[in-house]
Amino acid sequence: MAHDLAFINERIKEESAAIEQTLAEMGKVIVGQKELLERMMIALLASGHILLEGVPGLAKTLAVKTLARVTDLDFKRIQFTPDLLPADLTGTMVFNPKTAEFTTRKGPIFTNLLLADEINRAPAKVQSALLEAMQELQVTIGEESHPIARPFLVMATQNPIEQEGTYPLPEAQIDRFLLKVRITYPQKGEEKEIVNRMAGGGDIPLKAVLGRAALARLQASYQMVYIDERIKDYIIELVHATRFPQEAGIAKLKNLIQFGASPRASIYLTEASKALAFIRRRGYVTPEDVKTVGRDVLRHRIILSYEAEAEGLTSDDIISDVFNNVVVP
Q: Which residue from 33, 141, 179, 258 has the fewest beta carbons nearer than 10 Å?
């Protein structure tokens, strides 16, 4: 086993060098935000989707555009508004009077990287159309189903401070996002660097480090990352503690959680931990990997009770209690 692990470790060090180069290339444009860039790479490796929460102006759009440039993938952006229709996203049937036939005009969802800006501004029908495509990797237009080419990553954003005229995502739909990442303001030094880079208005040249073939190889390679049975048990214990905190010795959380994380959380936490270990050029998952991505995987899957909301608690507070009380292997 030790021999196998050493072999996997060496192989992953070689394979994941491309990820390091990609992050370094993106760092030429994006200042700081290491966590965001890392999470985007996790989603790309694990074929998941990201929900980003942060106030406007924190480089969410720039980050996904930069990712598209360094990976040579197609990129499209949709600004979600209350008057948007599902056809504006998925496409529609268009009548051609010359041939007297209907032809399919595909919408912007047919791309590799899709930025769904302010997803909570769109009505339920549009949200549903997007989330169905995310889950099924296909779109039905008229009577025909059209597959969406892989890789397909949706990066949806929502503004946490503005709630007028918004349609909050239902819990069952928000569960389909691999990660929910909260973006905060930059440090003073980082902000000065942002001003220095962006105030001139010039476009920073970037090279495509990863092609589609290389990305497909990396998506297969990260699955080699070894995850011990004890780490799997640790993940199960963490997720179980969000459902039945009293069994994990955290009785004080019992009345603060209305619904705990679903089994999807256990699957996604396993996959995201493996992807993070791969990005950090390691052939095995550690408990620290689980803790690092744990918040992003769990924060949108725990539904708080009215009592918790009245006390001003967030799902991050609950997750901190869970991590502090579940025994690390």
A: 258
Residue 281 phi, psi (nearest 5): 60, 45
Query: What tens digit of pLDDT does each residue of 214-226 get?
Result: 888 888 888 888 8
Give the chain's end-to-end CA distance (angstroms, integer).
19
DSSP 137: S
SS3 (DSSP) at 96: strand
Question: Token pair of 81, please?
Answer: 């508004």
Between CA 57 and CA 47 the distance in angstroms is 27
**Tokens representing residue 309 in the block:** 């909301």
Is the CB of residue 49 less than 8 Å from the CB of residue 177? yes
Identify the three-state secondary structure at position 160. coil
Contacts of 73 (CB under 8 A, 6+ apart): 67, 112, 113, 151, 212, 215
* Size of the chain, expressed as the number of residues it contains: 329
Going along the chain from its start, the domains and CATH numbers come out as 22-219 (3.40.50.300), 225-325 (1.10.8.80)
What's the whole-model pTM score? Answer: 0.86
Judge whether 269 and 290 are in contact, CB under 8 Å.
yes
Sign, CA dihedral 76-82-86-88, equals negative
Nearest C-alpha neighbor of 133 from the set 108, 163, 103: 108
Cα-based distances in Å from 2 to 6, 7, 8, 229, 267: 6, 9, 10, 15, 26
Residue pLDDT, tens place only, 222-259: 888 889 999 999 999 999 999 988 888 888 888 888 88
